Amino acid sequence: MTNPEYILGSDEAEIDRLQTQAAILAEPTALLFQRGGIRPGMRVLDLGSGPGDVAFQVADIVGPDGFVVGVERDPAQIAAATARRDRLGLGNVEFRRGDARTFVDDEPFDAGVCRLLLMHLPDAADVLAHQMRNLRPGGVFVAVDYDMGGARALPEVELYSRVRDWLWAGFEYAHVDPFVGMRLPVLFGQAGYDDVGALGLQAYWPPENRQAAGYVVGVVRAMKDAIVASGAATEDEIDLDTLELRLGDALGAAGAVYTAPTVVGGWGRRPSRT
Ligand SMILES: C[S@@+](CC[C@H](N)C(=O)[O-])C[C@H]1O[C@@H](n2cnc3c(N)ncnc32)[C@H](O)[C@@H]1O
After folding, report:
1. 54 Cα–ligand 1 center, Å
2. Ligand 1 and 115: CB distance under 6 A
3. Which of 1, 6, 114, 127 gets mutated to test ligand 1 (max ligand atoms within 8 A of its CB)?
């Protein structure tokens, strides 16, 4: 892990997990970016760009007349994103090393975005306020993040409830806010944005859809050390090698629909007078 304040790290498994998760999040992300005001031709900043999926989606929206600059603190993520960009042959995307707390570009952006970044930043309102200086007056910022309070299985599945409690304990231990989506309208207001709005979208997966167990256990795998350190479960109790199979079987046997964490988009506009 090259970024000591960031719990999820950037080994190969984590970079792969982010890309699997990105495929699941692609549809709500595109809808929320459109709703928040990302448009063709814009020059857009993507903060915490990770392996690049958000920047690639934004490049698709802004088209050949637009441009995307991804800013990321972790060199391993930048290397993965740049290699993927080259394979995709995208000429309107660039990745740079930088910290969302301090990054300032020479040229203003029409818009800024970030996804699954604010949950890791205890000073999220300050970061949003800082980023206003990268926007032209009237420019928009759209943040997409989780409200994990929306994730549930119905009917209730005991193993799922246990795994959810492990995750929440792990997040708390690691100072990650899994409910930051709930706070987006407040954070944008505190940061001084105008025209603040927020909207949440959620996937509903049927009992036989094994994607639910794969998705949940992917997060457990990424958070395992924090879960164990929090005291919520031991490695033996987690039994990572069999957990996905056990959870998928349990959801299927109960006939439970699983709702994935709510994907919340929050947005605001830099006041024209500043
Ligand atoms: C959960 S990943 C999300 C990646 C990508 N935005 C996505 O949705 O697929 C969070 C990313 O933010 C990066 N990150 C964390 N803190 C950061 C900071 N202060 N400045 C820039 N990047 C940061 C991490 O290195 C990681 O690549």
Report:
1. 11
2. yes
3. 6
Q: Is the pTM of this model over 0.90?
A: yes
Cβ–Cβ < 8 Å for 148, 183: no
Q: Is 177 in the pocket of ligand 1 (CB under 6 A)?
A: no
Structure confidence at residue 274 as a pLDDT band (50, 70, 90):
low
Which has the closest alpha carbon to 68: 22, 27, 25, 114? 114
Render pLDDT for 157-166 as a digit per residue (tens, 0 to 9).
999 999 999 9
Cα 57 to Cα 177: distance, rounded to the nearest angstrom: 25
Taking the centre of ligand 1 as the mean of its atom positions, its distance from the CA of residue 253, in whole angstroms, is 36
Ligand 1: centre distance to CA 153 (Å): 28
CA distance 166 to 226: 9
Distance 235 CA to ligand 1 centre (A): 27
Residue 114: exposed, middle, or buried by beta-carbon count in 10 A (0-12, 13-18, 19+)?
buried
Number of the ligand 1 atom closest to the C-alpha atom of 29: 8
Q: Environment class of residue 208 by beta-carbon count within 10 Å: exposed (0-12), middle (13-18) or buried (19+)?
A: exposed
Alpha carbon separation from 241 to 2, 15, 160, 220 (Å, rounded): 26, 19, 16, 11
Please calculate the CA angle 262-267-268 and round it to the nearest 5 degrees: 160
pLDDT tens for residues 206-262?
999 999 999 999 999 999 999 999 999 999 999 999 999 999 999 999 999 999 999
